[in-house]
Amino acid sequence: MRSPVVAGTVFEAFQRTADRFPENDFLQVLPETARYYGIEARTFTYRQAADEISGLARRYGRIGAAGAGLAGRRVGLMLENRPAMFFHWLALNALGASVVPLNPDWREAELEYVAEHSELALAIVPAARVAEVTAATNRGGRTVLVDTESLTGLAAGSGALSRAAAGGTPDETMECALLYTSGTTGRPKGCVLTNEYYLWAGTWYTQVGGLCSLTAGRERLITPLPMTHMNAMAFSTLAMILTGGCIIALDRFHPKTWWNSVATSGATIVHYLGVMPAMLLGADPASEDVRTQVKFGFGAGVSARLHAEFETRFGFPLLEAWAMTETGAGAVVIASREPRKVGTACFGRPSDRMSFRIVNEQGGDAGVGEHGELWVRSTVQRPGFGFFREYLKDSRATSEAWEGGYFHTGDIVFADEDGDLHFVDRKKNVIRRSGENISAVEVEGVILQHPKVAGVGVAAVPDEVRGDEVMACIVPKCGAEDADALARDIASFCLQRLSYFKAPGYVAFCERLPLTPTEKIQRARLGELARSLVGQKGTMDLRGMKKRNAGT
Fold first, then answer.
1. What CATH fold (topology level) applies to the domain 434-545?
2. Do strands 190-194 and 122-124 pair parallel, antiparallel, or not at all (unpaired)?
3. Global pTM?
4. 122 compared with 65, residue with greater pLDDT
């Protein structure tokens, strides 16, 4: 059944905008990003991008009969945030192929798993990675063609793709991309995402309103987030495509040059993750801190304790939003209207386009202020409208996630008396100490305010008396010359700002934390690290400092 809300493909949406705004900027490559990738710093208009996409589609179309070798198949793209990522994706989408963004940090075992699991037919990768990716993707008897973005090697191997995997005209129901979850708690799951998913993400963004209003043909959106992530690939890209705006895709977040990139690109919208505001606030104040050209920041995870400080210093609102790869814009919430309740981890009030429950530990609906797991579904057309279609080859996990007719998010939240939702933590990140639930994110937000802390990850470690104890793995800014004194100072800092039981009982200093490409903590690996450090030389046992009224 065709959707009454969105129709067609991502490529068709792009082509309509290219016809309407041919001379508008579509994609800007800043000099620092160009240097990193070894490409030209330039801006592509919609007309120029359409020409690039058309040329690629013709070349891909020579595979098999009129492109039949790629229709319904999956193509891996290890193209990072280069212009080629956007162009190849749209060209393949025009032919009815699905893309699998390949994380450049993946190595042979990870690439082998994804290639086998997704049944890749083709992979487009940097020249320096061709041999490695070929070896990984062809292990186990599969034949995966591997080429670079120039597609010079396709003609010789096109016979392997002469049989079509699926027929029919591409439309909103067809698979557009397969995005893999981070895999921090096991093997990555492949989220099957249709054209509908992407089109609705962009449509939702254009219709949010309030402080998140977009002006057709005028916006310039800068993002350091990777195109292997739904934020950049779905929300950022489709919002700009549907409104004729420009995408400024950075290779990654560079704190020292961030504001220069924002200024020189003329960005009116910035996308962020929680670690970014904290790092930007760590720089010395400057007279030019207020950024009047920026209308808003769109993101999630800003520390509640730093939120107001950031907005006051830099002069624009950070609009906290909630969504997941699985939910897309089928169930998304954003604090885009006042009062936003800055400083309370509030991410807004759900619209009538979604239905939700907050389910407590007893399986009932949580009361006002009571913590529980967020369950969501769409009310637009069907419960899964705008969501992922399924976990590839994992019907059991898909069914379990939708048990009871709602998607189980795994996020712990609460609703206040006004109906606004507040984020607490991921269900698996909650530390249970002597009957008290402790949010790792909350403790991390406090520790990050300490002037000598550059990064922190908080995890539960076993305690024979209390069940769990709070362990903080900390990256110090300038090394920990007197580790014991610094650890105690950090613990005292926490005891002045948190309930005593939330303060770290153990502190260990590390050179780095296990992070995903989007700078999120890999919780499973952090947990393993934390447990391995307990009792080791260099890990400070501060449990004796955790006493009632210790911070007074």
1. GMP Synthetase; Chain A, domain 3 (3.30.300)
2. unpaired
3. 0.85
4. 122
